[in-house]
Amino acid sequence: MSSKTRSWQKADSDHYLHPFTDHHDLGQKGARIITRAEGVYVYDSEGNQILDGMSGLWCVNLGYGRQDLIEAGCRQLQELPYYNSFFQTAHPPAIELSQLLAEVSPPGFKLSFFTGSGSESNDTNIKLVRRYWDLVGQPQRKKFISRKNAYHGSTVAAGTLGGMGAMHEQTGDMVNHVVHIEQPYHFGLGGDLSPAEFGLRQARLLEEKIKELGPENVAAFIGEPVQGAGGVIIPPDTYWPEIQRICRKYDILLIADEVITGFGRLGEWFGSTRLGIEPDLITFAKGVTSGYLPLGGVLVGERVGEVISAQGGEFAHGYTYSGHPAACAVALANIRALRDEGIVERVKNEIGPYFNQSWAKLDDHPIIGEARSIGMVGALELVRDKSSRERFDKDQHAGMRCRDFCFQNGLVMRAVGDGMIVAPPLVCEKAHIDELVEKAWKCLDLTEAALA
Ligand code: PXG
To answer: What is the per-residue pLDDT for 173?
Structure first.
């Protein structure tokens, strides 16, 4: 290892508290230092080339080194690096972005609220929903229904809205009015039910919860069209239409958290379109700028938008960087590239199906219980026994070991427990998908051998 890498690792361990990391453990091992990236590859400080199977953190959808995005950001920094939108002011990048978002969003979405992240966007959703119900004279509608193992961000409110156990242990009792139902995770929870039966059963948990809480008290249901951080949980086809029916029946707002599924990941501009969801609010972040600069927001549908704008009165909410000009300029370039280069259609018709077929081959590996994918996200379930779905012992840390083998062999693949997940850049060529699947197979072999 080079002395430069060693000194970075020491400074990192001495001073840098990483997100979602055991600081003590990292200090012992030393961080991998990523120094540059190009296309679909990242490079570490030792010069290793690594295929980025996670698009950074589900965000670098156009890949690295896009000059159009870089130049759009630089130009805007020179023209107007910062101004706010608070006191009856605005600037062209935020205005133009809200207009372009209205063009690519599902029908009925005309308004955008900007934030700096997905977490801030879901906090915004909580406040928008509360404001909506206050304005329509039903202020008692305060309950948010979410799902276990959902990820909606890590601010105190967004973390509570999510259903991650570790986060709830640390701060989950600090926000009221959030309740969780079980997730539509067929491999883990489906038992002998067919996917279709299981999808209906899991959706009807929402109806049971609404009745238990009293429909007049329920404000909104929130869900990721496909759960990402929870392990790429792809719901059965029956799930979302039933959720939609139930939300309509009880007049409950539906929030689709599209932080991962937005901007082409599932082969449509928004995953909701692919899965037949007609949400009232859509959370976005990540892919809106391909991660080049931080930006998030909420797309506000007609139902909420009309009440908020028609009834007047201030919406007491906003961030210094709501609609940051440079971030908006990058988002404009990113969305234009997605549109003008036909990248969303290419995911739908060409590279997505190719990825899905290639990924499915991993189902034949002896330690894979299920290989599933949709659009450009995929998951593998590591098992000791294929037919019984028996898992490896917890203390064998199968997922973590597989992840480490991947890193050593030039592939970023993430572990969620004993699930392995990928979300490669949307601009992958077929050769990149072949490389991804070949490397994944090899690392599964190594994992199998190490656990034997
Ligand atoms: N909603 C969803 C669906 C997300 O995936 C957020 C909200 C929060 O976005 P911000 O920008 O506040 O991070 C996310 C973020 C992981 C991982 O381990 C996933 C996310 C963030 C960090 C780690 O897969 N998703």
So the answer is: 82
Domain end call among 340, 357, 384:
340
Residues 346 and 444 in one domain: yes
How far is ligand 1, taken at its centre, from the CA of residue 182, in Å?
20
**H or E stretch at 95:** helix 92-104
Pocket test of ligand 1: the residue of 122, 286, 420 to mutate, having most ligand atoms within 8 Å of its CB, is 286
For the CA atoms of 179, 184, 187, 191, the dihedral, rounded to the nearest 10 degrees, stands at 80
**One domain for residues 263 and 387:** no
Q: Note whether 61 and 129 are same-domain residues.
A: no
d(CA 56, CA 224): 19
Q: What's the rounded Cα separation, in Å, for the pair 406 and 410?
A: 6
Q: How many residues does the chain have?
A: 452
Question: Could you tell me if residue 377 is inside a domain?
Answer: yes
Directed axis angle between helix 67-79 and helix 325-340, to 10°? 150
Contact assessment for residue 299 and residue 254, using Cβ atoms and an 8 Å cutoff: no
How much distance in Å is there from the Cα of 156 to the middle of ligand 1? 14
**Domain ranges, residue 348:** 32-65+342-451
Pocket of ligand 1 (CB under 6 A): 57, 117-119, 122, 151-153, 224, 228-229, 257, 259-260, 285, 296
Q: What DSSP element (H or E) covers 38?
A: strand 34-38
H/E stretch holding 332: helix 325-340
Q: What is the DSSP annotation of 230-267? A: TT-B---TTHHHHHHHHHHHTT-EEEEE-TTTTTTTTS
> Does some domain include residue 19?
no
Question: pLDDT tens digits for 165-221?
Answer: 999 999 888 899 999 999 999 999 999 999 999 999 999 999 999 999 999 999 999
Asked, for residue 12, whether it belongs to a domain, the answer is no
Residue located nearest, by CA, to atom 16 of ligand 1: 229
Tens of pLDDT along 22-73?
999 999 999 999 999 999 999 999 999 999 999 999 999 999 999 999 999 9
Number of structural domains, the chain? Answer: 2
The helix/strand count (H/E) of the chain reads as: 18, 14
Residue ending a domain, among 284, 315, 340, is 340
Of 112, 195, 173, 183, which Cα lies nearest the Cα of 145?
Answer: 183
Q: Count CB neighbours of 165 within 10 A.
A: 9
Strands (E), 48-159: 49-51, 109-115, 143-147
- How many angstroms is it from 412 CA to the middle of ligand 1? 17
Q: How far is the CA of 223 from the centre of ligand 1 (A)?
A: 13
CATH number assigned to the domain comprising residue 418:
3.90.1150.10
